[in-house]
Structure formats: structure tokens, C-alpha cells
Amino acid sequence: GKGGYDHYMLKEIESQPESLSNTIRGRIDPDEPAVHLEDFPRGCFEDVTEVHFVACGTSYHAALYGARLLEEANVSVRASRASEFSGRIPNPDGTLVVPVTQSGETADTLGALRAAREAGARTLAVTNVIGSTIAREADEVLYIRAGPEIGVAATKTFSSQVVTLVLLAERLREEVEGAIAREDRREFLEALSVLPDQIEEVIRTSRAEALSEKYDDRGAYFFIGHALQHPVALEGALKFKEITYEHAEGFASGELKHGPLALVTPGTPIFALFDGKHDEKTHTNAKEAQARGAEIVAVTSSERTASFADDVLAIPDTHPDLVGLLANVQLQFVSYYTARLLGRPIDKPRNLAKSVTVE
Ligand code: F6R
């Protein structure tokens, strides 16, 4: 049941400290420092030369996060929307195809998996559901261990997918030829191990409910971010449109001025995601929009970064590669409280199904 919550979505957002603890349990050792994925012993990724993610919707955003991490580690990587996957794999012997799917039943993702197998690539599914079709058909499976998710909008499974892909990326960068290992591995793994507690802190302190009341009824909502914050901006917008039925779009910060800025009018809310490392582009472009009347909500751990903004959603300090997970919880709350204010059927948005088994 909902355990005292009005909606499964809120229950699932607030269960992320627990679901993420399950995702990382036994898998990280900051002292060594090492990542242990029980089914993937040392050496098992030695033949991998490139990685290709295939996924849909929220899972595609998690895949983009994983892809960006690998890109920064100098690994050849792509992420395709499963429905757009061409089935072409130029180098099948060296390519690891990774379908990312909460349900393990999404028809588009299953189609991409089958095409990848047909092309002769090795396949490793990242999923939540044991025994699902994609778990059975992939060569190997890495489970995200988020527990059952009832709300149609994916929340805790997104964060567990991202963290699982963070772990997979750590393992891959040890073995893929030419990949760059982290210099700050211990600090990174320590930051990962306290992430569930920091999410608890965001849950305890979030001002998203009051903020949603202020920004109710604006007609259009934008979300911007650069680098690892870009997929989080896309995810923030998807969740928002899905459950509030309000128009929302996510953009790469630097793209705003290449077209979307024309949509900005006085009072347009823009949620700007900062990571403390790549903030210049987001800052410049958010200020540009602010000069055109946009109201900027900065999601950041830095008071200095936030000083220009109209509002702030504060998050605790963490490693720059993990900031998106904390920012995302704030955005989940913004979607939830806005939808609640608008009286939407939060757990079952119109026209949508939890698992999409048609192409
Ligand atoms: C959005 C959402 C969908 C799913 C997508 C893929 O909240 O839940 O966008 O992420 O339909 O589903 P899975 O992950 O089951 O393949």
C-alpha cells in the first residue's frame, strides 16, 4: 500500500535513501578503493572497445548520464533512443550494447536488444525486474535493485539506474583500452556511499512545495543544464509534463540561445542546474534569459552561484559527478507538488502506461 502517503509517487520519491542503499550495497569499497559487481569479475570487460546504450524515456535520460561519464573517461560511447536505433553496429566484436529499462518489457528496447544480438554484439541489460523478457534475452544482466515501483512516473528507478550506470562506468573505465581512470576514486566512492544520507537531507529540507505554489500556472516551464546536468534537465522536464500536463522542455544550457530563447516571456520559470564544475555556460545562458524576463530557479549547493537567481532549491555538497542525483530529487518534488496543486491523477497520468509493450 501507500503506507500513509497520498500517492505512490511521493512514497517512491521519499524511499530513495533506502532504494539507493540497496543499489550500492556490497558494490563499493572506498577503502580499496574499488567497485565490485558480483557477476562481472576483473577482466570481463577487457575486450570492450565501445559502449552503446539503448533506452526510452526516463531510462534514456539515465543512459545519457552514463554515456556522458564514459565520454569524459575517454571511452567510445553512444546512447540511442531505442525506437531510433538503426541496428547497425560497425564493430560488433568490441561493442557492448546496454539496454537500460526499468520494467525489462519495453517493446522498443526489446527490439533494439534483439537487433544488437542479431548484429553479433555482446549485450548487458540494466533493469529492475528479475525474470523480465529483456533480462532473459540479454547475455548478461546488472540489476538496479530499486524494489517495485507502482507510480507510472519513474522516480526511484531513475536514481537507481543512474547509480548503477555510475558503477558500471567505474568498472568499464578500469578495463577499456585508452580509458582514463579517476584520480579521485576514493573521494568519489566515499561521496557515493553517503549519497543516500544526502538524499534524506534533501527530502527533509526541500522547499519545493512552497516554490510550486509560487510558480503555479505559468504556461511553460524550462529546465537547463550542461554536461551531466543536461540529462537531469531533460528528465526534470519529462516528469513535469507527464504528471502536471503543463508544457515543459529540457535544454542543454548553451542551446537556449539557438532558438528556445524565443519562447521566453516575462515570468517564464527556468530551472537551472549547477554542478559546481561546469557552471559557466548555465550561468551565462540563464542570465541571458533572465534579462528577457525569465525567473530563474537555481538548483545548486553554492550560495554564491545562486546569488543571481530569483529562487533557489538548495542541495548538499557532493562530488560534481553525483550532483545530478540530488538535483533530480528537488525536481521530482517540484513536479509532484505542482501536479497535486493542479489536481492531477498523479499515479496514473492520462494516456500513459507503466510499461509500454507496443512499438
Ligand atoms: C517516465 C517513464 C517512461 C519510461 C519509459 C521506459 O516517467 O516512466 O518514460 O521510462 O517508458 O520504460 P522502461 O524503463 O520500463 O523501459
UniProtKB/TrEMBL annotation:
Superkingdom of this protein's organism: Archaea
Catalysed reactions, as listed in the record: D-fructose 6-phosphate + L-glutamine = D-glucosamine 6-phosphate + L-glutamate
Keywords from the named record: Aminotransferase, Cytoplasm, Glutamine amidotransferase, Repeat, Transferase
GO CC terms of this entry: cytoplasm
Domain SIS span(s) in chain numbering: 37-178, 211-349
A single MF term (Gene Ontology): glutamine-fructose-6-phosphate transaminase (isomerizing) activity
GO biological process: carbohydrate metabolic process
Keyword Repeat: yes
Residues of the active site: 354 (for fru-6p isomerization activity)
Compartments, record wording: Cytoplasm
EC number: 2.6.1.16
UniProt KW rRNA processing keyword: no
Subunit structure comment from the entry: Homodimer.
Functional summary from the UniProt entry: Catalyzes the first step in hexosamine metabolism, converting fructose-6P into glucosamine-6P using glutamine as a nitrogen source.
UniProt name for this protein: Glutamine--fructose-6-phosphate aminotransferase [isomerizing]
Organism name: Halalkalicoccus tibetensis
Gene name tied to this protein: glmS
